[in-house]
Amino acid sequence: MRLFFSFLFLTLILILPAPPARAAEPVEVVIRGVEEEMLDNVRVALGLPPGLVREGTVNRRWLKRFARQVPKKVGPALEPFGYFAADAEVALEELEKNRFRLTVEVDPGEPVRVRLVRFELVGPGEEASSLRDMVKDFPLREGAVLRQDRYEKAKGSLKARALDLGYLAAGFPTHEILVHRGEGWADIDLVLETGPRYLFGHALLLGAEDYPKGFLRRFLAFSPGEVFSHARLGQTQLNFLDTDRFREVLITPRIEAAEDQRVSVEIHLAPSPRRRLRPGIGYGTDTGARLSLEYRDLNVFHRAHLLEGDLLMAELRQSLTSSYTIPWGRNIQTATVLRLGYNREDIDTYETQSIFAEGEVVRDYGKGRRGSVFLRLLQEDSTIADDDFRSRMVIPGIRYSRRRYPDTVRPKEGYHFRIEVRGGHQSLGSDTGLVQTLVSGNALLPLPGRLSLFARMDGGLTLQNEALEEFPVSLRFFAGGDQSVRGYAYQSLAPSDSDGEVVGGKHVLVGSLELERALGENWGGALFYDIGNAFDSLSEYELAQGAGIGIRRYTPVGPVRIDLARQVGQKDPSYRLHLSVGFGW
Q1: How many CA atoms lie within 13 A of 394 on its CB side?
Q2: pLDDT tens digits for 176-205?
Q3: Fold for domain 276-331+406-584?
Q4: Strand 185-193, strand 507-519: pairing
Q5: For 38, phi and psi rounded to 5 degrees?
Q6: pTM
Q7: CATH of domain 25-107
Q8: What are residue 205's DSSP bridge partners?
Q9: Could you tell me if 371 and 360 are in contact, meaning their C-beta atoms sit under 8 angstroms apart?
Q10: Do domains 113-193 and 199-271 have the same CATH topology?
Q11: How many CB atoms lie within 10 A of CB 119?
Q12: pLDDT tens digits, residue range 504-527?
C-alpha cells in the first residue's frame, strides 16, 4: 500500500503544473482601465521596443521617450473596439536601481455607435438564401458599438460563403465605414457583388497510369455540373492521401481558363511504392515479447486490388493472416474482402489454435461510417479447464462502425464505435447454435489545462441453444489485461467451473475512464479507473475494479505505455504492472 501511494504522489507531482518561477523584469508595464480583448490589444501596442533593455540594463532616455509616446499608441489599439476618443495617463517610477514600473491608466471614453447600415447583395447570387441570412444576421446594427474586428470577420465569412456557393468572383466593390468622431456615430456602406456562379467541369487525372481510371475516379468528391467548391477539392485531396497509395497529390483548378463558368480540374498523382515490407518489434504484458512483419501490395494485377499479409510471433500468441481486397462501386471504401488466417494462443487460462476463412462485403456510408456483411468458416482446437475439444463453426454476421478521429497519429479528440451481430446454427454446418452481439466504443475529450479524458466501453451478449462447454474458446468472453480491466491478468476474469478453473462467460461488460495530462510535447501522465467482468447471468454478476497511474511516451514509431494498477474491492488486493511498447519501420 505504501508503495502504491508513493508512486501515486510522484505521478501527481508530474501531472500537476508547478507554479512558474519568474525573474523580476527590468521594466514592468501595468495597464489599468481595460479588460480582456482590449487589454490584450493595448498590451501588444505597448510592447517594449528591442534594444530598450540590453543585457539587463535599461536605456533611461529611451524609456522616458517611450513613456511620452504611450497615449498615441493606446488610441489606435482601442479603435477596432469602437473607442476613438481614448486617453491615457502615464506614470513612470524607479523601484530600485535598474528596475522601473510604467503605469498606464486608460480611459477609453464613450464608444462610437452605428447610426446607419446600408448592406446590399447584387449579382446572380443576390437571392441565395444562405447569403441573405448572413446579411440579415450581420453583427453591426443601428445603435451597436462599432466593432471593426467583428465587421471584418463578418465580411470574411460572407465572402467565404459566396466562394463555397461557387461565386468565385465575389467581392466588395463598396466597403466603407464613415466615422464621425465628434458626434460619436458611424455609417456603414457595404455591397457584395457575387458575380456569376461557377460549376465543376471535367477532372483530368495525371500520373498514376498504373491504376485503373475508374478506380481513381472513386476518390473525386465532385462531379461535372456540380457547384464549384474549394472544400470539395480539399476533400478530394484527403480522399487520395488517406488511401496511403499516393505520396503526393496536387490539385489545380483552372479557374482562369473556365468556359461557360465551368472549371476543369487537374489532379497530379505521385504513387507510393507498390510493395512494402514493414518489420516491427515490441513487448506487451498480454503478449510478451513480439516480432511482427507486415507485407502490402497496393496494386495487384494493376487493378488496384490490395494484398495484405501479417505475421506475429510473440511469446504467448502467434498468428499469420492474409487478406485480398477487391474494390468496386463508386464509394471509396466499398469492396469485397477475402481473408485467411491461423491463430495460436497459449496463456494460463487456455490454449487454443484455429484456422479461419472469411468473406466480407464492405460498404462506405460517408463521414467515417462503414457497414458490412460477412461469412466466416472457423475450425478451432482448444484446451481449457483440462478439457480438449475441436469446434467447427459457420458464422454469418453484420458489422457497422463509425470513426471520427481527425488525427490518426496522436488524436486530441474524437470517437469511435463498432457493433457486430453474428451467429451460427447446426443447420448451417456449425457444431453449436448461438447468436452474439458485440458492442465497443471509445471517446477522447480535450479538457482545459492540457488535460484529456479518454473513455472506452466493450460489451458482449450471447444467446445459445447449447451448453457453454460446446463453445469455441474464441467465442467465449473474458476480461482482464492491458486493454480491459487493468490490475488483473490477461483473460483471467470469467466464470469458473467446479474445480475453480476459468472457463469463460456468455456475456461481458467492461468500462474505463482515463484522465491524462500532457507533459511537454511527447510525454503524458495518466490516472485511470477500470471496471468489468465476464459472466453467465444478466441478473447476477460481479464487476471487478482496478485503478492506478500511468506514464505515456509518444514517439514517431509508436507509443510507450506503462501503467501500475491496483485491484479495488478485493480482500487482498494486488498490484500489476502493465507495459505496452511497439516500434515499426
Answers
A1: 6
A2: 999 998 889 999 999 999 999 999 999 999
A3: Porin (2.40.160)
A4: unpaired
A5: -65, -40
A6: 0.77
A7: 3.10.20.310
A8: 267
A9: no
A10: yes
A11: 16
A12: 999 999 999 999 999 988 899 999
